[in-house]
Amino acid sequence: MVQLGWIYGSITEDILTGFKMHCRGWRSIYCMPKLAAFKGSAPINLSDRLNQVLRWALGSVEIFFSRHSPLLYGYKGGNLKWLERFAYINTTIYPFTSLPLLAYCTLPAVCLLTGKFIMPPVSCYYCVAAD
């Protein structure tokens, strides 16, 4: 019996559906017709854009911690190539990259406000001895 259709139960059901289809052996191709096959809509202001990015991030984290995580799902009998698995893992871990980025962006401001430098002072024994 062939099962077709969307896999619901996730905010980002399109990623989950594509992942499960690839795990079941389906192959995808990039199709670029001369006439537009589909037309969609995009957010027109910053608030809508931020809400959309938040939805995508929450959906990716949800897939990462679910039983469909690309880290473990589909290894036994799965038909994913290693590059496909790597791409799906990248899709689900990208929200976590915001944590080191946030630290990287706020650390200089904290150092400037507190007057403390994050690196220890450099003292060069050879430089002092050469004088």
UniProtKB/TrEMBL annotation:
GO terms for biological process: cell wall organization; cellulose biosynthetic process. GO terms for molecular function: cellulose synthase (UDP-forming) activity. InterPro entries: Cellulose_synth (IPR005150). It comes from the Eukaryota. The keyword Nucleotidyltransferase does not apply. Keywords: Cell wall biogenesis/degradation, Glycosyltransferase, Membrane, Transferase, Transmembrane, Transmembrane helix. GO terms for cellular component: endomembrane system; membrane. It is found in: Endomembrane system. This is Cellulose synthase. It comes from Triticum turgidum subsp. durum (Durum wheat).
